[in-house]
Each structure stands twice: as C-alpha cells, then as structure tokens.
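Support reply, case 0932

Customer input (verbatim):
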Amino acid sequence: MADAKKILIIDDEIDLSLLLKDYFVRKKYEVFLTHTLSEGKDLLQQNTPDILILDNNLPDGTGWNLAPDIATSFPGIYIVLVSAFHPSVPEMPLGASFRVIEKPITRADLDKQFHEF
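Our regenerated output:
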C-alpha cells in the first residue's frame, strides 16, 4: 500500500474508530488508529497522513486544542474535527483544510462527508 493515501484516526470510541477504519480501508487508504492523544501525536510525526480524524475529548487531553498547531506544522493535511459535545471550533490558521463532523456518525454520513476522497 505504498501509494495509498494515509489516514490517522485519533478517537477513543472503539466502535466508531473501527467503523471509520473499515470504511477507509475499503476505499484503499492506509489507516492508522489510536485512542489517545499522546500516541496520536507520535503516529502523526511518524506517518504524516493525508487526512487526520481528530476527536475532541480524549482520555489524555483535548484534541481540538492541537488542531491549529497541526495545521501549521503539516500544511498539506486535511483535518476532520469530530465531537458529540458541540464545542467551539478552534481558530484555524488561514488556508487550513478542515471540517467539523458531529457524532454520532453513520456510514451514510461518511459517504456524504467523504465522497470526494
């Protein structure tokens, strides 16, 4: 899968993470999955994904707080911010590629949100 696009999913909801992984594997993406922010930051550095799916409330921190720094450090990455709690969207750098998706997420939501990928 050397030519496959990469996706990193950082979300502590196991069922949703597996749904997302299955969805993107079927679309021929290379998928990296973690349930903590600290491991997610390591995987981000190691794999530089094309897409980052980032949950807000994680066991070891608030994912959305890192989104602006990630967008600055990895300007080519497309960031998908997910949350069930409707937090304020962080102020993202000019030109950052991102979107917000509210939980719960279904396969139909994925088809609608990711039809261009």
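We compared this against your earlier run and they match. Two observations from our side: The chain has a mean pLDDT of 91. The chain has one domain: 6-113. Please reopen the case if you see a mismatch on your end.
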